[in-house]
Amino acid sequence: MTVTVEAAGRHRLGSPGLRRINLALFAAGLSTFMSLYCTQALLPELSRAFHVPPAKAALLVSLTTGALAVAIIPVSSLSERYGRTRVMLVSSVAAALAGLLLPLCPSFPAMAALRAVQGVALAGVPAVAMAYLADEVDPGSLGGAMGRYVAGTSLGGLLGRLVPGSAIDVAGWRWALAATTLLALGCTLLFWALLPPSRFFRPGRAEHRALLAHLRDPGLRRLYLTGFLLMAGMVTVYNLLSYRLLDAPFHLPRAVVGLIAVMYLGGSFAAARAGLLADRHGGRPVLLAAVVATAGGLALTLPDSVPLIAAGLLVFTAGFFAAHSVAGGRVGLRATRGRAQASALYLFAYYMGAGVGGTAGGLAYEHGQWTGTGVYVLVLLLVAAVAVATLDLNVRLVGKLRS
Fold first, then answer.
1. pLDDT digits (tens, 9 = 90+) for 352-365
2. CA–CA separation, 236 vs 241, rounded Å?
3. Which of 123, 248, 259, 310 is least enclosed by beta carbons within 10 angstroms?
4. Omega before 249 cis (within 30°)?
5. DSSP one-letter string for 337-362
6. Averaged pLDDT of the chain
7. Where do transmembrane segments lie in this chain (predicted)?
8. Count of domains observed in the chain
9. Beta bridge partners of 11
10. 9 lies in a domain?
11. Poorest-confidence range of 78-92, 169-183, 197-211, 379-393?
12. What is the domain-level CATH number for residue 89?
């Protein structure tokens, strides 16, 4: 498939406009992913508070990501009609307001329902951010910009786990959720203040034919499958590793277990770096190397050794975010029209991986403990590696960009 992208006048690396875009979307990534994962570090405590098993408690993550996945395609279509920035800004505020109600939930069903509502509200930023970048940023700078946005999402995931995980021993799970939500609201306000208006987007009617065209493209289908499999593995590992470390033979304190989210710092660095490497050396080799690194990191977590688990989780997290950064960026480059919908299909698959794959991972843990969980995730990553190895990213762009 050959794609020509008209790049004249778009924001380039080093320009003030691109710096402002990077800061705004970094803040958006922080806000969105703090809200998305704010319950993950608290799952063992919420299991005890609401008297539910691990697989059921994991629904507080899976329902949110699943609802986001269901909403993401309709929301992307709204952005084709009403504009990228408007949809992102409204979505970010609605999600922050829904989050303020989480600490008040009296029961597990109430919290599960509110988390699903929050997932729908959260859909606007990830549904549109990639398309906004593809519209506004010069193709030769897109990989780096996408990497910085994904770095913001990874740091948001870190704070979404680290803040409540650190606060719970001091103030309980309700105050832990409240602190995380207020921090997310602050990032949302920063996003509102910084985001430049679209210069190259032209409103139009969302075309269902564009969705079908994206699904007929074998390259896009492989990218969608890769996102699904990667996210299924990622959510499984971070949902369930806390249970393992709290139980025998480790019996680690909750505050220490909450620090596993620090590994997201490696993800932030890897996402930004992988985007730049893909711009210079091509998407497929960088993406395949990232998937292989993710699998290698997971393998290191299988022995009952805290140092090996820590090292493996760092490599696993860095590989995951590097792969996500490259795969998401290539979707925006490959689609010649309906970019928001193309990115939304990728993110639909990505978050469905969290919802479906993460729930299946909970069952793997209940039946096979960490060994069964590791085998399950390694199989997912093997299929992802095969999909990437057969991926054709033959994209020709105006400007210095290699596919």
1. 888 788 778 888 98
2. 8
3. 248
4. yes
5. S-HHHHHHHHHHHHHHIIIIIHHHHH
6. 83
7. 21-43, 55-75, 87-104, 175-195, 223-243, 255-274, 286-302, 308-333, 345-363, 375-395
8. 1
9. 137
10. no
11. 197-211
12. 1.20.1250.20
**Does residue 144 sit within a domain?**
yes
Q: Looking at the domain assignment, is residue 10 inside a domain?
A: no
In order of 95, 131, 143, 386, the CA distances from 22 in angstroms are 21, 14, 12, 33
Element housing 266 (H / E): helix 264-281
Helix, coil or strand: residue 399 = coil
Six token digits for residue 328: 């998401």
Please check whether residue 4 lies inside any domain of the structure. Answer: no
Q: Which two tokens stand for residue 25?
A: 């979307």
CB 262 within 8 A of CB 155: no
Q: How far apart are CA 319 and CA 297, in angstroms?
A: 8
Q: Residue 311: phi, psi to the nearest 5?
A: -65, -45
Query: In this structure, what token pair is assigned to residue 303?
Result: 């022995």
Mark 192-208 as b/e (b = at least 16 C-beta within 10 Å).
Answer: bebbeebeebeeeebee
Task: Name the more confident of 157 and 191.
Answer: 191
Predicted confidence (pLDDT) at residue 283 exceeds the cutoff of 80: no
Residue range of the domain that includes 223: 16-196+207-389
pLDDT one-digit tens code per residue, 73-132: 888 778 877 778 888 888 988 998 899 999 999 999 999 999 999 999 998 888 788 778
Contacts of 155 (CB under 8 A, 6+ apart): 26, 29, 30, 33, 264, 265, 268
**What type of residue sits at position 228?**
F
392: Cβ contacts below 8 Å, ≥ 6 apart: 1, 218, 219
CA-based max dimension of the chain: 59
**pLDDT over 90 (residue 343):** no
Question: 53 burial class (0-12, 13-18, 19+ CB within 10 angstroms)?
Answer: exposed
Which position has the token pair 């507080």? 60
CB atoms within 10 A of CB 307: 9
